[in-house]
UniProtKB/TrEMBL annotation:
Its cofactor is pyridoxal 5'-phosphate. Coiled coil: none annotated. Residues 2-366 form the Aminotransferase class V domain. Belongs to the class-V pyridoxal-phosphate-dependent aminotransferase family. Csd subfamily. One of its GO terms (molecular function) is cysteine desulfurase activity. It catalyses: (sulfur carrier)-H + L-cysteine = (sulfur carrier)-SH + L-alanine. Keywords: Pyridoxal phosphate. Its EC number is 2.8.1.7. Signal peptide: none annotated. This is cysteine desulfurase. PROSITE patterns: AA_TRANSFER_CLASS_5. It is an enzyme of class 2 (transferase).
Amino acid sequence: MIYLDNAATTFPKPDSVWEAVVDCGRNSCGNPGRSGHPLAAAAAREIFAAREALAEFFNAGDSSRIVFTCNATMALNTALYGYLTDGGHVITSSMEHNSVMRPLHTLQQQGRITLTVVPCSPRGELDPDDVKRAVQADTRLVVLTHASNVCGTIFPVADVKQRLPEVPLLVDAAQTAGALPIDIVQSGIDMLAFAGHKGLLGPMGTGGLYVAPSLRLAPVMQGGTGSRSEDLAHPGFMPDALEAGTPNVPGVCGLHAGVRFLQETGVATVRAHEMSLTRLLIDGLAGHDRIRIHGPADPARQTAVVSVTINGRDPGAIARSLDRDFGIACRASLHCAPLAHQTLGTCPEGTVRLSMSYFNTLDDMQQAVRALHAIAEQEEA
């Protein structure tokens, strides 16, 4: 099988990831912070080491500002519901995933916030000046994807922050953490939500949220933390304030191993390889008059995500053919981002999304090009 569904979750993972998960299960799978015995202490050390590694990876400074979650969706909900307790005006874009749009829609429907959705170009591009023009007197938050999960378009989040230094910026890095260099300090990011199981190469069920020291979030979940157990009030200090309940220790160990792999390999090396894959795929598909590429069609302006349609063909049928006839795994339809597809002009049918990782090869791209050409030509016949 040629796996081109890495925007959903990366596969394969480095062997070291699964080795770390198994080693944790055998040697350090106590409950961290709850007990003093060796297994619990070992688990606490693993959690701390992973937190430190992520803080270094993102240049986040104090590692206590990194909290672990089950995924980027949980991180985004934690940020949105935790920060917007007093309401206000929120700005987002028309290219956001439902992990952003559904919480914002709910808050808007409940009358707790007002919302401006800044329209993007038909290639999914955002003009930072459009975001600045959307600011109101009571604007409390800007929420933006770092790159589209549909077509890969990279957003100029640092440029947005430069124009709006006084407004907190929440960045959805589900598609970019591990795939693009992210420097929290340099970019001026106030909150960063990330998936552990995509570009960071960790297991599913992992993710996290960075929160700047200047921000305080109300916890969306309260309970046991192993700290201040005598107090009925939930702890207000980080990371305990946002980490109630037993953490996914084996998953965090695997995530740490994924981060180590990226640190050893170099994110720049990963990016260069994924750009070469994207270029080969785009160049191979661009010449066919029935295949349309949606998005920038430029590896320098997008992640390794390429969305296509074939005239007269249902995206779901194309994906089934790729799987059944050519052994290529991908994803079709709306990709949990209907507003993005409306922006691209691909709603309601959606697209066929091919998404690559560091472990794909140039030969994989050549086979995908041949397969899509064959499907397009079958329809012509």
